[in-house]
C-alpha cells in the first residue's frame, strides 16, 4: 500500500512538490486508490482539488465514481491549461482518467509539482490494443512515485494488466464499462475472442 511521503520532506525542501501516478488496466482499482489518497489528504486538512476530463461523463457529470460506487467531487475540464489556474490555491491536486487529457498535461503536472504541490494522477497505462495510452509514458517517466494496480482476469482468474474490448470498434476513445470491456491477463488478452473456449476446454 502506498504511504504518503513524510511531511518532513516538505520542511527539508520547502516549496518542493511531486507527482504520483496510479496506473493499470480497467477495473484495477485506480479510482479507488485515487479517492483513498485524496480522502487522507482531506483528513490532514490539506486543500485539495480534483479534476477529470470533461469528456468522461459515464457515471456523473462532476463526481469521480469508481466501479465500486465510491465517489468524490471533481471539476470537469476541457484542457490541461485550465488546471494550472484552477489549482492555484490548493496543496493537493487529483486527476482521474488522465490518459484522455491533451499532451499539455505533462507540462501542467510538472509545473504544479515545481510550484510545491502534490499531484496525484490516475489513468490507463495501455489502451485496448495493449499500446501505451497518450501522455501516460511521459507522466510515468517524470513522476516521483508510480503505482501499478491490477484487476482480476475475467477469463481465468489470474492477475490482469490488460483491458480487453468486447466490441469491434477500432476508435481509441470508446467510453464504456463491463458492457464494452473486461480485464484480462496477458495470455487471455492475446487469445482474443477465443479465450473462453480455449482456457475452459483445456483438461
Ligand atoms: N475484473 C475485475 N477485477 C477487479 N475488480 C473488479 C473487476 N471487475 C469489477 N471490479 C470492481 O471494480 C472495483 C475497482 O474499480 P475502480 O477503482 O473504478 O477501477 P479503475 O478505476 O481501475 O477502473 C473493484 O473494487 C471491484 O469491485
Ligand atoms: C482500454 C480503453 C478504455 N477506454 C475507456 C473506457 C472507460 O470509459 C475509460 C477507462 O475507465 P476506467 O476508470 O479505467 O475503468 O476509458 C477507451 O476509451 N479506450 C481504451 O482503449
Ligand atoms: Zn487470463
From TrEMBL:
SUPFAM superfamilies: Glucocorticoid receptor-like (DNA-binding domain), P-loop containing nucleoside triphosphate hydrolases. One of its GO terms (cellular component) is cytosol. Substrate binds at residues 173-176, 181. Homotetramer. PANTHER family: THYMIDINE KINASE (PTHR11441), THYMIDINE KINASE, CYTOSOLIC (PTHR11441:SF0). GO terms for biological process: DNA biosynthetic process; thymidine metabolic process. This is Thymidine kinase. It comes from the Bacteria. Keywords: ATP-binding, Cytoplasm, DNA synthesis, Kinase, Metal-binding, Nucleotide-binding, Transferase, Zinc. It catalyses: thymidine + ATP = dTMP + ADP + H(+). The keyword Amino-acid biosynthesis does not apply. Its EC number is 2.7.1.21. One of its GO terms (molecular function) is thymidine kinase activity. Belongs to the thymidine kinase family. The active site is at residue 97. Its main location: cytoplasm. Zn(2+) binds at residues 153, 156, 185, 188. HAMAP family: Thymidine_kinase. It is found in: Cytoplasm. Pfam families: TK. ATP binds at residues 24-31, 96-99.
